[in-house]
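Example A, followed by Example B.
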Amino acid sequence: MQNLILETTEKLFSKHCTSTVRDEAEVGAFPEALWNAFQDAGLHLLGTAESGTSIQDAYALMRLAGRYGVPLPIPEILISNYCVGEAGITTVAEGAEAPWGRVADRVLFPNGDLVTSFSIQKGTNIAGEPRDRVIYASSKLVELPSDFDAMMALGRTVSMSGAMERILELTLQYASERNQFGRALSKFQAIQHNLAVLAGETAASQRGADAAIEFIDTPWFRIQVGSAKARVGEAAGTIAEIAHQIHGAMGFTHEHELHQFTRRLWAWREEHGNESVWRAELGRRILEVGADQVWAFLTRSL
């Protein structure tokens, strides 16, 4: 079932999510055609009870969206629909800022405030994605899962792991096609070493995200999400650095799509808790269990 969903979604993203669409979104153009195709396919309901799918399926789609750099608030829409039901475009705020608040029908806040009447001040993150300040006078209080913030952090984590897949793919392709001193870059030992590190960091990030998904609906979910978000956030810096080193000047040009993914990594690692935030929480949990239980804590949660 999940494979069929992902195959359908990939065809949709391949058709409607081009580099041009991502560029246009960065200057404020909402990708209507992409959103309409996504909604018409019923993918905005993935994970909800009426869809016959699970929240695990929704997170798998978020990874694919990250791989394509989809300029829609996919994690916000899927997680909010799972928690409070579907009604157009529902985005989720972090602090006072919400992705694509300018086009949203509703804004959900982590404390349970659901807002339908609001104004916004337009803004962006460092990837050029809309992050709009939401201003409102009244709201409706809805019940959210106790680990709602961790669910959102996992959304960013799996999206980052998807973007890393694309960065690895672009870098491998460039290294095999670009010639220097009469041979492909991929034939040089130093480049091979960096490619191995890039692949290893990508694989570790994917495994961390997968582990957190596996622990959904268990007492260890939050711990796994914290571990994954911290590990993937750390890998983001290494992966972006290596990818740009191998691409050289080409990777910094606007025409090449590498920057559309590396900038998202830099932005997403800071959203819904960066590695410092989640490491601090993990540290507090370890202190709570006491020295005698640290090993049991680590082996049960990993």
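Example B, a separate protein, is given below in the same form.
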Amino acid sequence: MGVLRWRSVLDSQIAGASTQPLSRLDLEVLTALRLAVYQLGWLSRIPGRAAINESVELVKRARKRSAAPFVNAVLRKLAAGIPPNHEASQRASGASAETLAASSAHPLWMVERWIQAYGFDSALRICLYNQSIPVTAIRLRHPEAEDRLHAEGIELDPGVFLASARRVLQGDITNTPAFRAGLCVIQDEASQLVAALVGRGLHVLDCCAAPGGKTAAIADHDPNSKIVAVELHPHRARLLRRLLDTRANNSERGNIGVVAADARSLPFAVKFNRVLADVPCSGTGTLARNPEIKWRLTPEDLADLQVRQLAILRSATAQVAAGGRVIYSTCSLEGEENEDVVERLLKENSSFRVIDCRAELERLQQEGELICSDPSSLTRGLYLRTLPGVHPCEGFFAAILEKT
């Protein structure tokens, strides 16, 4: 994860010590160099000689033996110049997009977009958050869960936004009987917030349900609702079914149905009171947990994603009963995937209007579910908008569309 977070900084250091362009290096050789440079500069408990020797051996085992002397020479040169515990001094900084992108190991095009959309200070905070290890957030599903976790050695803090959320300060929650019994689930608070916005409905459709976190949260909020969870791929639908069975109480098992279908062409004749369209997206709001995204995503990908997202939203709106709502959401920071999709749908379909998310957040606050003192701080215009670093969670967008 460290190599993925800091890849461009590592590559810059390697390029400065290498006699060959990085583009000419075999991937195995470059990977071994990145691993060693990260260990040399970021991990204080690993001796430099051990990091160098291990990477040289990795190159040999990858059948690139002829490159071993080159790797050894580059790493020894770098070891003499990299100060220990380099991470402490490697902080996102600078007064320009170029400096911020270089110091925080983010693609320049991505940083430029965030500065334009949210301002330099927010872009700086996003980059800092993405380069840190995020706190694990959980959602409590049973009154006994917190006491059980404390008894099992897990140290918790209250959530920032939601009464049912907790933040793990110490301990591995995945090894606890309480977690395995489904008394709690790992779920970012922004993701929990999107599920809470769905509200209550007799018939609920989750268009893009896998891996099932929001589906389970909707069922927990309203055990009387009948929920249909849609997943495109049959094998993932089977995994989703098993996961939901594990998480559900006995009384809820018959309330969630899983269907393998394409969300762009939903096969239902029935209309739903609530439809969640948590669409596939770029994931730029989740880079702290998924740093590999920033190295494979291109600006051109956003247009392709928007086409798919708009098709899913069109399909979702066709499934809504009169007076019902569609909650459209992504974990992206990019306007093309968020506001632009919603506004295009509204231009095409005059039977829907946008509900101000602030009103729904205030409702959740009055009901005691939302504990944030200033719900408006979680919105941007009419929409839910969380930003990593600005808020202590992942970056999520949500819009509520009501059928008139």
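On Example B: Residues 18 and 73 are 9 Å apart (CA to CA).
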